[in-house]
């Protein structure tokens, strides 16, 4: 058991050294002692980053749901696996035990099988944060189908692109969703999306908001009656270690979203091991991650990591601000939450409000606090530490990505001394490198560069669905034999890492990754628009907000321009979703470009953040005169 739970700093360093010196032995021991396998592996690791090809636990057989559910039944069958807290505090919470989860997942698995879903088929899940979402994910895994969860805030167009990219046969959705005081017509969005998706033969619809929806004959069916008739047992499909478990889309610097493909065995081992140590989960703790399962954080640290450890994991349907700013703290008190994991943007939004919302609640159950998704600023860190953790719950600032599958840099609570805004040390097995502009690795401390990873870890994505070349080009071509993260980082005097932010064209808004290219594509489709460029600028709550510089085909009068601003945001909402709306739109006569025609975003970023004092050398621009004009008019 010892390697599975890290007790002090010395042990961390010892294990870290072992994981670097003998990575195969290290991971083999973890895999052997803490998981159930149908068949043992023949080789722990094979890798070649020049292709890139990575295989963990080659030839092993397993089913992740046997590890997340079945093996717990005889020891903790009556323990709550999923604690569902609805959007409306007046609606009762649901405690779904491991026994119940088993039968719900098996019933769902039988429904999927009956509808013709086979091992390897892709199933799109477009559901709000209701138990059916976790159940559908696990049911896919149980029958060996590859789930592709699409966050239920994405538009019809974003949904259809994702469905078509991975050729999904089926969509699981609901009539609608509750979000704070609003309801969202999810089924309507699916109907619209499916006009573009010829490969989808069936749609299963969970009932959540009891709205009137149109059901297309021969394609759409209500889920519940099918579940009622289904058998409550299902023998798990035997999967190969490297069989894809799921696809999850993430934004890229260029147009199309990237369908990151995750494996079965490596993903399971790494998410379970990180969960146990980074949240210091103890039997009977109640753990709550506020993310949505539509993002990687929800996959790894609401569903798979916690359940593989037999944990009680809270699933919250609502938003932090409804019906009031104390909703999170009310839930912590109500369910006596021990580990609480959220995003800096939520902390900043709540920190703006009166402390009464916090102080009304007993938060003494909390033992560990976590953050993820973007760099946490010092002020938010202290607010979290003072008012939520009361200086007694360590904050784990966890850095990782959709691509990494699990947490890569983080303190270990009660083990690693924390420093505000530092994600601190690499997790066991994670070999980081900082690279300079010339492509050399920066050795020693007190250096800053581009963050890379130079050795495989079990939960790394294996490819981009349908485009292995893009996988290589995006992550493995910048530096020989290294995975490039897209982030910049500093290593301080004691070897702690601080993430400085993206160095590519991805902008993180409220913790959501947004690529500039798809937003620009959406804007450019407006008939009045000639060209556009999006940059991020600092925002108190969202971390970054979006600033659009737009060239119109004709400069109209200002009233018309106001309407255009609305239409442009409407266009973005339709193409991507409301999360990508622009905070500011400036109509400009031109965009600063290099002689090779590349937009100089560096200059636009400075203008957007109001810092025009030092724009650097603009003499190399094709059109330096537009810079003056843009500055004059900047908002
Ligand atoms: C898990 C997740 C990944 C990008 C990543 C980085 C940023 C995430 C962070 C952080 C600073 C942290 N990021 N955690 N930056 N400190 N603790 O968020 O995955 O949605 O793919 O985003 O988020 O820029 O590259 P994903």
Automatic annotation (TrEMBL):
CDD domains: ACS
A single GO molecular function term of this UniProt record: acetate-CoA ligase activity
Superkingdom as given in the UniProt entry: Bacteria
Limits of the Acetyl-coenzyme A synthetase N-terminal domain: 12-68
Domain called AMP-dependent synthetase/ligase: residue spans: 74-462
Alphabetic keyword roster: Acetylation, ATP-binding, Ligase, Nucleotide-binding
UniProt xrefs under Pfam families: ACAS_N (PF16177), AMP-binding (PF00501), AMP-binding_C (PF13193)
Keyword Acetylation: yes
EC number: 6.2.1.1
Domain named AMP-binding enzyme C-terminal: residues: 519-598
GO biological process per UniProt: acetyl-CoA biosynthetic process from acetate
Family, as annotated: Belongs to the ATP-dependent AMP-binding enzyme family.
Stated name of the protein: Acetate--CoA ligase
Native organism: Muriicola soli
Gene name linked to the record: acs
